[in-house]
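Z., the sequence and structure:
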Amino acid sequence: MGSRAAGGEQPPDDGVSEGVGEESRRLTREQLYTIVAAASINFSSMMCYSILGPFFPSEAEKKGASNTIVGLIFGCFALVNFLTSLILGNYLSQIGAKFMFVSGMFVSGCVTILFGMLDRVPSGPMFISFCFLVRAMDAISFAAAITASFSILAKAFPTNIATVLGSLEIFSGLGLVLGPPLGGFLYQSFGYEVPFITLGCIVLALVPVNMCILPRYDSTPRKESFWKLILLPKVLILCLTIFSLSACLGFFDPTISLFILKKFTLPAGYVGLVFLGLALSYSLSSPLLGLVSDKLPYMRKWLLIFGDLMTAVCLFMLGPAPVLHIESQLWMFVLVLVLIGFSLGMSAIPVFPEILQCAYENGFEEGLSLLGLVSGLFNAMWSLGAFVGPILGGFLNEELGFEWAAAIQGGWPLLSGLATGIFYIIEATRKSSSSSLQNPPGDNEERTRLMVNET
């Protein structure tokens, strides 16, 4: 599991990965415990992230926070997550993956409970300040736990990391889907404090469980340079892909519910059901896309390209864009959301193993140090998109309307898809030229004649 060959992240020249041994097809106890731990943090962290939606904005307004301030409170989570993911990923081997995972989960549980106590804080600037402080602490704990989780998973499953990450997206999707309705129910039944206290206690109860079951992986001193990794052309393009996908998802936060209520005049309770199409299609397709990415590594570039382009087309059709002169209908809107969920999975799932493969090809040594760098970079770019997407989307929606805003937002995946396609064409051309120079036709003909003469 420690060797790069065992990692399977350097596919043979023909692009087909080697078969996995019989012993690696069965999960070891350590691998099973690692999956359980990662599933717990995916599910709980997404619930903590999404539970605020149904009722916090109205509560914050009662405390004197404007709509802009509420938006900034939500947005500061992604911004702090972006900054801390880069730092924590860079120092993962020094801190220790298991310690970072468990401590991040512990702080997340405590901070969630603290958020439930904010209704006791006096209204005005003090309430707003504490909201920013607690939300920033939550972002730091989230960055620590998720960065460590990605690294541990890549260490435990070197030959099929995309399959495992794709399968675990089911728990992330469940957390995002169940968080708002559960939070809304507890809020209506018991008040503001109970949703946060309940969820925080659940997270804290999982901490000792993960301390016992999560294996400890040895870490080696960091030798890799973060700037050497991020300045690789292929890694830069893959970072653009991560950013564009996250920005598209973030665009929906401040816009989609308003559009559904206004356009289709649905009751507020049905808005979540409409968005469920995207969440379910992404969560259910991710394991299959991860399996394809692992078993057929040469397909990753096609998944990335077509996933980006498909996302761009779907966003153009979501409104649809006024230039098409197509009347928006509910069934078509839901269908496009389902396709967006699938296309996002096509692009998002292969990115992590593709960055790892690129790092190995450029001389990076396999180990927790590199996994920490890649995990931190992935989470940072995703958080940056989650910060930019809602801000830009809200501005475009206010100025141009949802139809044009969605079409313009599709420019991000269109740009990343075209850039990815151009890069892979150039890469294939260079490899073809290099191989032809190393094996000129004359050498092959001379070698053939010598073999004939010897026989």
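Confidence is low (pLDDT under 50) at residues 1-24. The two ends are 46 Å apart (CA to CA).

Let me know what you think.
H.
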